[in-house]
Design goal:
The protein has a single domain (about 35-225), classed as Glycerol-3-phosphate (1)-acyltransferase (3-Layer(aba) Sandwich), CATH 3.40.1130.10. About 35% of the residues lie in helices and about 15% in strands. The chain has 6 helices and 7 strands. It has helices at about 15-35, 60-70, 85-95, 105-115, 140-150, 200-225, and strands at about 35-40, 50-55, 75-80, 95-100, 120-125, 155-160, 180-185. The longest helix has 26 residues, at about 200-225. Residues about 1-10 and about 165-170 have low confidence and may be disordered.
């Protein structure tokens, strides 16, 4: 896979790199201004080439936290419901991709693959929506992008955004509290055969779930959040 020219996409409609780079700068300023992020293992993210970041999702701020702590600009697949009012041009402007989760959104799929074709970083919440953030219920979307593009998958655990269990899930983490972002080892989702069949997709999804669950457990032990 070959990337396109810097800041441009080889796929019409796919977001370019400049917007995501601006989003990263905004994320750094906001996240470091509000909380105390501790980033571990960022060196495990390949410095160049297409990458899929697979992130656990327990809070609405998980995406912005990762945008402000990842070593490279990230294009996230985000539910289309978030693209409302002034957030619509803003999210598009910083290179994010709206997706309809109820159907096979071909436009979103094409744009996401375009990011990877250009050699960019695609961020995915493989659980599809906010939950316990434990990778228990993975959808096949992550496996599809990994198999179709050949990009390595890097598991990411974002810990500390939900605060105590007594806090409402929508409540923001306490100001200046510590948030841990732990990057795991990159791996290939496929078995090396190049297959893209339904069976290969199911096998890759199971393989991804195992790797992500193990990484989350390791991250909790490493940060003392077990």
């Amino acid at each position: 896979m070959r990337g396109g020219a810097p800041g441009r996409s080889a796929v019409p409609g796919a977001p370019g790199a400049r917007g995501a780079a601006a989003g990263r700068r905004i994320g750094i300023a906001v996240i470091r201004g509000l909380w105390r992020p501790r980033v571990l293992g960022a060196w495990r993210v390949p410095a160049a080439g297409p990458v899929v970041l697979a992130v656990n999702h327990a809070h609405i701020v998980d995406g912005p936290v990762l945008m402000g702590t990842a070593p490279r600009p990230v294009h996230f697949l985000i539910k289309k419901e978030a693209f409302v009012g002034p957030l619509d041009p803003f999210l598009h402007g910083i290179g994010q991709i709206g997706v309809d989760r109820e159907v096979a959104d071909r436009t979103a799929i094409t744009r996401a693959l375009g990011v990877l074709e250009r050699g960019g970083v695609l961020g995915i919440f493989p659980e599809g929506t906010r939950g316990e953030g434990d990778f228990a219920s993975l959808r096949s979307g992550l496996a599809y992008f990994a198999l179709r593009s050949g990009a390595p998958v890097v598991p990411v655990a974002v810990l500390g955004t939900t605060g105590s269990r007594s806090r409402a899930i929508s409540a923001l983490p306490p100001l200046r509290s510590r948030i841990d972002v732990v990057f795991g080892e990159a791996f290939q989702a496929g078995d090396g055969s190049g297959r893209r069949t339904r069976a290969a997709l199911d096998e890759a999804t199971a393989r991804i779930r195992e790797r992500l669950t193990a990484h989350l457990a390791d991250a909790r032990r490493l940060t003392g959040r077990g």
